[in-house]
Amino acid sequence: MGKTEILIIDDEQSVADALKVILESEGFSVTLAATGREGVERARQGKFRLAITDLRLPDMSGLEVLQTLRAENSGLCVILITSYGTPAIVAEALGCGAEGTLDKPFAPSEIIRLITSVLERTPDARS
User: What is the pLDDT of residue 35?
Assistant: First the structure.
């Protein structure tokens, strides 16, 4: 079995690059997208096990991305990250099917712990 494929959707280049370095150092294969539409398109083309999307993107909200990804690929796990986390946003994200949320800034250990937890509790349903 190959590396677990993760899609990161974040328009903040420094955050996306940092996540890529952190996740690749843990053995994951990472693809980046800077907009919601680009992320959705990449998700359609790849066989990702997990997507991490920012709440605020230039073209659509992270919640819209989440809903689109979940509608098109029910086996894809999605984590929402945000600098604007409120209990209402967290509840809405979880209600839309997110497997988890994380507030920025976060420590590398926090994102790894969340990803590991999500992957352990959800079956790999990719076709």
Answer: 98
